[in-house]
Amino acid sequence: MTWHDRQARKLYEWEDAVVAPRDRSLVPFAQLQSLVDHVWAEEGRQWPPRVRPLPKQARRTVARATRTAIEAPAELPSWVLLHEIAHALTADVDGTHAGHGPDFVAAYLRLLARHARMDRAMLEESLARAGIAWTRDEANPPSPR
Predict the structure, then answer these.
(1) pTM of structure
(2) Residue in 70, 90, 77 with CA at minimum distance from that of residue 134
(3) Beta strand pairing status for 50-53 and 69-72?
(4) From 11's CA, which of 23, 65, 105, 141 has a CA 20 to 30 Å away?
C-alpha cells in the first residue's frame, strides 16, 4: 500500500469518526451548484467547478471532483461536498491534484471550520491524533469562534 493510499484511508476513517457525526445535513442536487459558487467566491476564486450528475455506473463512488467539475448523486452530505470542493481547490485544470495529501487536508480543514462551523482546534487535534498530515498556513490562522 502506498503512502497516498494509507493517507486516504486514514482520512476517510477520520471523516467517519470526527466529521460525519457533526454534520448530518443532506443537500439536494439542485442546491449543490449555488453552494459550490458561494464557497468558491469566499475562497477568493473565480470560475467555480460545475456540478454535474455522478454517472450511474459509479456505484462505489460517493462523489468526485476535478478542478473544473464536481460529480454528485441526487443528494450529498454537506461535508462530502466540502471534501470535493477541497479537491477542486487543490487541483489544476490539466488534471494535476494534491490527492489526499497535506495541501488537500489544509484546504479541507479550512472549509470545515469556515463553512460547516466545526471547531478548528478540535479538528486539528483529531487530525494529529489520527496521524494525518496537513500544511500549516500561518497566514490563515484558525477562524474565530
Answers:
(1) 0.89
(2) 90
(3) parallel
(4) 141
Cβ contact 85:29 at 8 Å:
no
pLDDT band, residue 3 (cuts 50/70/90): low
How far is CA 39 from each of CA 2, 14, 106, 131, 135, rounded to the nearest angstrom?
32, 23, 15, 27, 20
β-strand partners of 50: 69
With residue 81 as reference, give the H or E element that holds it. Answer: helix 78-89
| Residue pLDDT, tens place only, 41-99 | 999 999 999 999 998 877 778 899 999 999 999 999 999 999 999 999 999 887 778 78
Q: Which residues contact 109 (CB under 8 A, 6 or more apart)?
A: 120, 123, 124, 127, 134
Cell of 86: 477541497
